[in-house]
Specification:
- The chain has ten helices and ten strands.
- It is α/β, with parallel strands linked by helices and 255 residues long.
- Helix 3 crosses helix 5 (125-137) and helix 3 (96-108) packs parallel to helix 6 (153-165).
- It binds adenosine-5'-diphosphate and magnesium ion.
- Adenosine-5'-diphosphate binds next to helix 1.
Length: 255
């Protein structure tokens, strides 16, 4: 079966230091896959190679079997790769709903700038309906008219996920969505991601330092350590692997 998203033999060096050494990962349609590893393991570097933010020195990235190595970020996005930004990037003076509408317009190529929303043409009814649906799905419909500046970090993360969903992805890639969130907020995020994934069925690649979200949410996981893959398989097996535990220096417990 052709993988939805596949990276094979990806290597990246920064100033002669290997950040990724011949790394291969793949995600099938509808699958929930985790990518974990200690800080500096190369997770974000791989994430950036998948999305086209960074070109690997060697290796291949394919989407539905098509080599996307030469494609820029926006082309990969239009082809079905949604992602959340690690840093929350919200424009001040806009509401949650407007944020989602901006994403929709960027995807459709009907206006790349948020000013288009304020000035030229009002959002069409179907655009508004799409944003309402996403907010419902995320359980934050009541935030639609709130200014984004007034949101908590946990709520902002959900809006970021919402923004990615507006592009109708086949796969959603998340880089450390739990960073800065407390335990309750992380659990709420996991529950929301699960509910959304159940209803939409798209694949998810969850990149995390924190293993609890990966343990809760994913069915399969890869482990990076110092730029090399040291494990891959069913999430429960991977987290029980002594080599993985050593890489984390016993810094987490799996119940
Ligand atoms: N733009 C860059 N320039 C130089 N070194 C980098 C750059 N980005 C990442 N690195 C280095 O590559 C390694 C992997 O980093 P990263 O992919 O951010 O790890 P992770 O996301 O797993 O914490 C680290 O040693 C980091 O310092
Ligand atoms: Mg990172």
């Amino acid at each position: 079966m052709t993988a939805l998203l596949d990276a094979s033999g990806v290597s990246v060096a920064f100033s002669g230091i290997l950040a990724l050494d011949d790394v291969s990962v793949s995600v099938q349609a509808g699958e929930r896959v985790g990518l974990i590893g200690p800080n500096g393991a190369g997770k974000t570097t791989l994430f950036n190679c998948l999305l086209g933010i960074l070109r690997p020195d060697s290796g291949r990235v394919t989407l539905n079997g098509v080599d996307v190595g030469g494609w820029p970020v926006h082309r990969r996005a239009r082809a079905g790769m949604g992602r959340t930004f690690q840093r929350v990037e919200l424009f001040s003076d806009t509401t949650v709903r407007e944020h989602l509408l901006i994403a929709e317009r960027v995807r459709n190529g009907t206006g790349a700038f948020w000013k288009d929303l304020v000035g030229l043409g009002r959002p069409r009814p179907e655009e508004v309906a799409a944003s309402e649906e996403v907010l419902e799905l995320l359980g934050i419909a009541e935030l639609a008219a709130k200014p984004v500046e007034s949101l908590s970090l946990g709520q902002s993360r959900l809006v970021e996920v919402g923004r990615a969903l507006m592009t109708g992805p086949q796969i959603l890639l998340l880089d450390e969505p739990s960073s800065g969130l407390d335990r309750d907020e992380t659990q709420a995020l996991a529950a929301t991601l699960r509910a959304v994934q159940d209803s939409k069925g798209y694949a998810v690649l969850l990149v995390e330092h924190d293993v609890s979200l990966v343990a809760d949410f994913t069915e399969r996981a890869y482990v990076l350590d110092s730029g090399a893959l040291i494990a891959g398989g069913a999430t429960g097996d991977v987290l029980a692997d002594p080599a993985v535990r050593r890489a984390y220096l016993g810094s987490f417990e799996v119940s």
